[in-house]
UniProtKB/TrEMBL annotation, chains A, B:
It comes from the Bacteria. This is Citrate lyase alpha chain. Signal peptide: none annotated. Keywords: Cytoplasm, Lyase, Transferase. One of its GO terms (molecular function) is citrate CoA-transferase activity. One of its GO terms (biological process) is acetyl-CoA metabolic process. It catalyses: citrate = oxaloacetate + acetate; citrate + acetyl-CoA = (3S)-citryl-CoA + acetate. It is found in: Cytoplasm. Its main location: cytoplasm. The keyword Protein biosynthesis does not apply. Transmembrane segments: none annotated. GO terms for cellular component: ATP-independent citrate lyase complex; cytoplasm. Its EC number is 2.8.3.10, 4.1.3.6.
Length: 513, 513
């Protein structure tokens, strides 16, 4: 079977099931059902605090084949996932599926659990490091399912992804299960990605190293969703919680790209009062924010909101009055955590509110401008941020395809060549985000506009920006690097790339090394 | 059939269905199911703003027999319910059930709709004024269903009360349906009672007189739950929104009762760091708060939280550091609205978080001391706040039975005699709150302790408080007033009193005038 993008996808995949093929970014709306939820009601006088993960595991029904979930707000500093899986593995439980919103290098111990059959499934929106490598190498029994930040809450709410037990790393929790991420040693700010887990899992266990007296305020996740609160010594290493990628690039090429991207935004006509904006936390993407900031100041524009994973750069724009509000699903640095805690204009949002296509309208639907990265782009404007040019998993959508679909102007910023390889190809190794929702690609050598956006091509033709076709841009790159060879893969599907609506946009096959 | 309190209740009631009899305040816990929800997903580019209630009614499927819901945060100033029902009635729709969290005198136009068959069902937690009278007089086709503030969200979440369309009066809404109650001409503060409606209704329509640019922050009810936003001239009269009952009594009898109640609280040993407290907004109840405040200051006690409908008196206690936090489901005055808006220690809560017995633990479960009112109390400590001594509906539980069940010490404060009638009877006209969850009755002439609370009787016997049996207290009253005659009622059931768990604790029969 080929889906609408021409990607070869089996009808049925062992360990996954029937495949619903991707049919277009907006093909799958209409009325949807959020699934019912089982709740163990709590009587007055019943207590929730437990003194160890083991005590919690004693309280719940563990069995082979369960799905357990985790959020990734502690990022590469997270201790929760490893400690929980270790404790479960010790009990001889097998065949676990890990539904983590993202997986980082710190989660390397999962590789051993994959090899010995404790962990046989992984569902995540982003996977980097040894676990990604091990999945690509075929060590996970079932194919990994790679979702998006909006697709994951959709899957949870619809029942497509049923969570037996959610383990929620809680920087602060009170004795009755109210949770926030703004206080404590492992303060990480917004807990947006944990919300659907808390609302829909059969059992919800908060794990905290900062147990406080009732009530913990502010409340990001309410006591009404939490079965138990487990006190541990530490849920994470603050140094790993703050990502290292949130710095504006100093590379002159990256800065040039940022300037050009900002000129594209200006030419689009969207830089006016009410502008809404999101950018990733990559160095070039943040440089676009810095350029846009100057432009907004010069034009005296007040934007409506900036959204996303929030960094100090965006917080500064809020403080300077360039945006009225921020929507924050994840804080990338301590400036963001502090602002989220103290500034009522800096509003939290759940993953569902951020990007779920099947609720009554996510925040991404209101985005004007989205700045995206890319590992590869093809001449249909499809973007890969899931696999490297060697075919090995090294990331995933995160909010990439959610924001691309929702925003009026989705701009990919990237060097034309990375590691001596051209970024633009005839065919990306893996489609993460469909070309129909990518409007512009900005490189240091030229700018290509999606031919569907005739309005934008016209506007850019009135500028002195180096607009060309994507084929021309590809040609420029290949002149320098030559045409790269296609990756050879086996037939074995090691990961399934689900589009935000739950259809399969692509699969990752095991590369032949 | 008699339920566990000995109340005669039919097995089956026409217009209501099978009766699940009340079996005790804590008989009905365990695992419960929250029902699935239908969601009309909203694509990028789709808009939600409509210019009139009629435009909204054009968009949705109206039919005879639907259930429509309203919150009561605009109280006796509410314009939303009347205007919506008027617009629906004009279209010839019949047999509507109104699921309003409470109904006030301002909703008098419902009486005409009841008489002509437009409105045939009413579900509410509190009903006062002409609608209450008309229900008692038999003008509503089906018996009214009287729930509690915690029982209503339980019923909605479980599917027992299915809402076809929720109309949410929104003091402020943005163009995409984010709602708050803290800004706008009709600012009423917390919108806690509207939360379950927004989450579970088939369709959710925000009605606002303060439509603002996206995004409206803070967000109390999210865009992800709202289908349409209707702009109207006015959703309510601010003068009616602030209740007139929120003043400390000046009556010396009331003040005496408050002093005695506070001595009971002191003797109970609960006045220590971490104390949690709630009081109704009646004059005597507020006087208890004033007394408790002095006691806490003298003892240098810092409480954990005060909860409930919040008044300026409670806000002052927060400001003075007597409580660490407030939990607010409803603001009773403008001081409360302002504090809820500006003070992060003043936290909102949904009706479910406040009192739902079937979630993972409501705020009422953590209450130490609850001060309650009463219309009648019987020698089993059952309390009536639903009907007057003439048998006519004049109120309802609100949070009465929720807080009584949850709190460690539930104290009823009341004059021994009101309107020449004794408050304590052999048998209350209607049971709102079961005696098992009422601990103490404090009157100006004496204090009766529930015989189940031997611990408390012992503690009070060590004070000079006038402790006596409830029979003795009844005797005192009857010496002054004589024994009142029982009310005569017909067999016709005009209202069903549901306990918070959905069982039937009593019915209201039509009084014979």
């Amino acid at each position: 079977m080929k889906n609408v993008l021409g990607r070869e996808i089996p009808d049925y995949i062992e360990g996954y099931g029937e495949v619903k093929p991707f049919q277009g970014a907006f093909a799958n709306y209409g009325t949807r059902e959020k699934v019912g939820v089982k709740v163990s009601s709590v009587k007055p006088g019943e207590e929730k605090v437990l003194n160890s993960i083991d005590e919690a595991l004693d309280k719940i029904e563990l069995r082979d084949g369960i799905t357990i979930s985790f959020h990734h707000h502690l990022r590469n500093g997270d201790f929760v996932l490893n400690n929980v899986v270790y404790a479960i593995a010790k009990r001889g439980i097998k065949d676990i599926t890990i539904a983590a919103s993202s997986i980082f290098p710190v989660h390397e111990p999962l590789v051993e659990h994959m090899k010995n059959g404790v962990v046989t499934g992984i569902v995540a929106n982003y996977i980097s490091g040894p676990v990604a490598r091990a999945i690509s190498d075929g060590y996970l029994k079932n194919p990994a399912v790679m979702m998006t930040h909006g697709g994951r809450p959709r899957a949870i709410e619809s029942g497509d992804l049923h969570i037996d037990i959610a383990f929620i790393g809680a920087p602060t929790a009170d004795t009755y299960g109210n949770i926030n991420g703004v206080y404590g040693n492992a303060a990480c700010g917004s807990l947006g990605y944990a919300v659907a887990d808390a609302e829909y899992a059969d059992k919800v266990i908060a794990i905290t190293d900062n147990l406080v007296a009732y009530p913990a305020c502010p409340i990001e996740i309410s006591q009404i969703y939490v079965d138990y609160v487990v006190k541990v010594d530490s849920i994470g290493d603050p140094k790993g919680i703050v990502s290292g990628t949130t710095r504006i690039t100093k590379d002159p090429v990256g800065l040039k790209i940022a300037k050009m991207a900002t000129k594209v935004i200006e030419a689009s006509g969207l830089v006016k009062d009410g502008l809404s904006f999101q950018t990733g936390a990559g160095g070039t993407s943040l440089a676009v924010a810095a350029e846009l900031k100057e432009l907004m100041k010069n034009k005296e524009v007040v934007g409506s909101f900036a959204a996303g994973g929030i960094t100090g750069y965006i917080v500064d724009m809020l403080k300077e009055g360039l945006f009225r509000n921020l929507f924050d699903v994840q804080c990338f640095d301590l400036d963001a955590v502090e602002s989220y805690r103290d500034n009522p204009k800096h509003q939290g949002m759940s993953g569902s509110m951020y990007g779920n296509p099947h609720n009554k309208g996510a925040v991404v639907n209101n985005l004007d401008v989205m700045i995206l990265g890319a590992t590869e782009i093809d001449t249909d404007f499809n973007v890969n941020v899931t696999t490297g040019s060697d075919g090995v998993i090294m990331g995933g959508s995160g909010g990439h395809s959610d924001t691309a679909a929702g925003s009026k102007l989705a701009i990919v910023v990237t060097n034309l060549i990375k590691g001596r390889l051209p970024i633009i190809k005839d065919r990306v190794t893996t489609v993460t985000t469909p070309g129909e929702s990518v409007d512009v690609v900005v490189t240091e050598r030229g700018i290509a506009v999606n031919p569907n956006r005739k309005d934008l091509i016209e506007k850019l033709n009135n500028t002195n920006l180096p607009v060309m076709t994507i084929e021309e841009l590809k040609g420029l790159a290949e002149k320098m690097t030559g045409k790269p060879e296609a990756i050879e893969t086996s037939d074995e599907v090691v990961a399934i790339v689900e589009y935000r609506d739950g259809t399969v946009i692509d699969v990752v096959r095991k590369p032949i090394a």
